């Protein structure tokens, strides 16, 4: 069994630090993690930075929260590990999320333009004012698929040593959690566990609403014969990238879906609704 490493810096007090900013509104999502030790180490990384919301998408080891290696590597963050939410798909993990950030080491032809962790954390600090956000990390071996990346609002890349850029999953989680901590603590706190929302801002669309919009739009483009489902090329990927730049508001999503609905109605494709 892997033994936990002793903390390198001991806390100065036993009193828990009060949560501020977006600490309770931020999810860390691990997609298909393979190694229980990495899941435990990620839980530890989160707790050291004041976060606790860990979501596991289809982990390779069933009941990974109870795995001895995961518990050992959590090294005192047993509460974060035990509280991890397990879901079957990334769509489930992003339910209710207003903004999401995908971490990837690979250059993507399509998708949001990558940001350095500090820039991405600054963006997260602004987005968390509107509701829950998520940081999405891929499998240790294959990373995130293009489909996973396209579901996210933004993309981040850790500029590691190009001669040896391989980062352990938990190390990547630690880097982003640290940058988020700095960004959140730099914000004025008007409440102990949440950033005060900007009451003048228009609500952003939730992840699942944006996905329904893309399905609705794709069906409308097929009905118009603008999109050939047998040879779609990269049309929907390009549209996703275009929309990802704008930070879609709820009303904007409704407008696009309204257009798609009327196209489908005019083309005689049912009532035009996509659930």
TrEMBL record:
Coiled-coil stretches noted in the UniProt entry, renumbered to this chain: none
Keyword tRNA processing (UniProt): yes
Keywords of this entry: Cytoplasm, Methyltransferase, S-adenosyl-L-methionine, Transferase, tRNA processing
Location of the tRNA/rRNA methyltransferase SpoU type domain: 27-178
GO cellular component entries: cytosol
Chain residue ranges for the region called Disordered: 1-21
One GO BP annotation of this record: tRNA nucleoside ribose methylation
Family annotation (InterPro entries): Alpha/beta_knot_MTases, RNA_MeTrfase_TrmJ/LasT, SpoU_MeTrfase, tRNA_m1G_MTases_N
Superkingdom of the organism of origin: Bacteria
SUPFAM superfamilies named in the record: alpha/beta knot
Reactions catalysed: uridine(32) in tRNA + S-adenosyl-L-methionine = 2'-O-methyluridine(32) in tRNA + S-adenosyl-L-homocysteine + H(+); cytidine(32) in tRNA + S-adenosyl-L-methionine = 2'-O-methylcytidine(32) in tRNA + S-adenosyl-L-homocysteine + H(+)
Family classification: Belongs to the class IV-like SAM-binding methyltransferase superfamily. RNA methyltransferase TrmH family.
Job of this protein: Catalyzes the formation of 2'O-methylated cytidine (Cm32) or 2'O-methylated uridine (Um32) at position 32 in tRNA.
PANTHER family linked: TRNA (CYTIDINE_URIDINE-2'-O-)-METHYLTRANSFERASE TRMJ, TRNA/RRNA METHYLTRANSFERASE
Quaternary state and interactors: Homodimer.
Name of this chain's protein: tRNA (cytidine/uridine-2'-O-)-methyltransferase TrmJ
Gene, per the UniProt record: trmJ
């Amino acid at each position: 069994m892997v033994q936990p490493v002793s903390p390198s810096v001991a806390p100065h007090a036993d009193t828990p630090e009060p949560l501020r900013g977006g600490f309770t509104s931020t999810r860390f999502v691990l997609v298909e993690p393979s190694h229980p030790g990495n899941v435990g180490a990620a839980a530890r990384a989160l707790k050291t930075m004041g976060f606790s919301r860990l979501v596991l998408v289809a982990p390779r080891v069933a009941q990974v929260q109870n795995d001895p290696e995961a518990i050992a590597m959590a090294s005192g963050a047993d509460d974060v590990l035990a509280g991890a939410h397990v879901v079957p798909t990334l769509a489930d993990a992003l339910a209710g999320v207003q903004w999401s950030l995908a971490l990837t080491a690979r250059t993507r032809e399509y998708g949001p333009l990558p940001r350095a962790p500090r820039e991405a954390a600054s963006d997260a600090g602004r987005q968390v004012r509107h509701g829950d956000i998520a940081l999405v990390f891929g499998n240790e071996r294959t990373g995130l698929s293009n489909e996973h990346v396209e579901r996210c609002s933004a993309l981040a890349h850790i500029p590691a040593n190009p001669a040896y850029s391989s980062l352990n999953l938990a190390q990547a989680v630690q880097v982003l959690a640290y940058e988020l901590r700095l960004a959140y603590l730099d914000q004025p706190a008007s409440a102990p566990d949440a950033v005060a929302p900007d009451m003048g801002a228009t609500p952003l669309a939730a992840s699942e609403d944006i996905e329904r919009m893309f399905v609705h739009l794709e069906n409308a483009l097929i009905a118009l014969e603008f999109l050939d489902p047998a040879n779609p090329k990269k049309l929907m990927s390009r549209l996703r990238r275009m929309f990802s730049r704008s930070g879609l508001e709820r009303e904007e999503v409704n407008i696009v879906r309204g257009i798609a609905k009327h196209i489908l109605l005019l083309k005689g494709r049912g009532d035009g609704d996509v659930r």
